Amino acid sequence: xxxxxxxxxxxxxxxxxxxxxxxxxxxxxxxxxxxxxxxxxxxxxxxxxxxxxxxxxxxxxxxxxxxxxxxxxxxxxxxxxxxxxxxxxxxxxxxxxxxx
Length: 100
Fold this sequence. Notes:
Layout: E1 2-6, H1 8-17, E2 21-24, H2 28-31, E3 40-41, H3 49-54, E4 62-65, H4 70-81, E5 86-90
Parallel strand pairs: 1-5, 2-3, 2-4, 4-5
């Protein structure tokens, strides 16, 4: 299993080069104020997060982000424990995303 915290430029390049699942783990309210194009919203604190991510392809790369990196870091570790092969976490989250 490869889990890695990556800076915004590397995160963007990895996602463009190796398409996978891009997950925004913020609340719907946060997402309403902007999100990374191509992402799906699965709220980390929504109550069914683990169930929702368990349905994803564990062999494909997964890219996760939140507002500042905390929730997505927890999500990354959860996915590691669930057997995902590759998970990348955006350091400092969407708040630090320069490609808006």
